[in-house]
Please model this.
Amino acid sequence: MHGLSQLSTFGHQLDGTLQRYKALVYPQRYWDYRRWLQQQVGTEQLHQLAHNQPVVVFDFRDSRIDGPQGRRFYSLFIYFVRAGFYPVLRNNYLVLGNIQEKHKRYCLQENFSVLTHERDLPAGYVLVTDKWYSNLAERAGKIIHINYQPDYNTNDSCFPMPFPLFPPLYAAKEDLRLAYYREQDRQWKIFFGGDAEPGKYNKKSIREIYAKLSRTQILERLSQRLPNDFFWRLNNPEQLKQAEQSSYPGLIAMNTRHCKVASEEWLGTMARAHFFLACPGVRYPMSHNLIEAMAVGTIPITQYPELFFPALEHGKNCLVFSSPDELQIAVQQAMSMDNAQRAAMKQAAQTYYDQYLAPQACIKRLLEHRPKHISLRLLPFLKAGGGFA
Model:
């Protein structure tokens, strides 16, 4: 098992290296980048654009900052934007050559500058880098070094980066409408929404490294054990429309592989339920939809409260299970919970999001973590061999 894990990790790292350097063998891509660069706002106009905003400078070299389809790069970028910073990207073709692709392209919706002349930067900026040395560090007010290591411990001196919403939600500014969604009427007791392809969501890393039930195991268990009137599987848009017009006392499980929901409608769909069944992701437990649930005040039913920092608390801001039997107990508890306790847990869940997961709060806590030099653990939930950094 250990050998297979090492082989998988090596294969991923090799693929990441090839993806990073493939731009060097595609001249057309390079010239496309050069044309894009000429269209960007130069740092000579930075002072005018930033006005009185604080400035954050991103200076990266490692392709791991992109993560799956550019998600990590964009999430870090938009967290600082939401916190009121004006972003500046260090000109680096190997890092920015793919900025018009996948989730990374959402950066292009925001105002930013590309740094070509360091002398134009105002002193006292925040520098975010994954380099062991950056020549931009001398004039920075704070330096944040990206740390990709697994096996975070709360005694570590680094800051644990919270897991984000799905990037298209920030791009659609849906994260700015949470107050509206939190007041939405709740017509379903429990909801699960996500890809439910059995082969994809039943990896050994979930079951053996994290010791959690996989998404496939959870949904199969509940479909077999819950009465037919308390398990409703949605597999197409027509069934979703029917559910949206109904109240339901049990679990609605929506397979987004066959039942698509637009980004602008996703949080509203999530907010139809009192509880959200938080199933693990592909290679590690953390998944965007649990964060999205808490953001709109939908109480998570989860088996990985310890992967949040601080940990989620059973009966306060979530319901916790760790075995198939406990899963059924938690689901039954959610379906029978009285209004007062449910309202208290809803408030606690959304308060936790506001304090620890929202971009503005996260960046504030990050910058207060150390006087000047801060180590940012980008994937604090990751265990060695249980997914890729």
Summary: Residues 2-21 form the longest helix (20 residues). The chain has 15 helices and 13 strands.
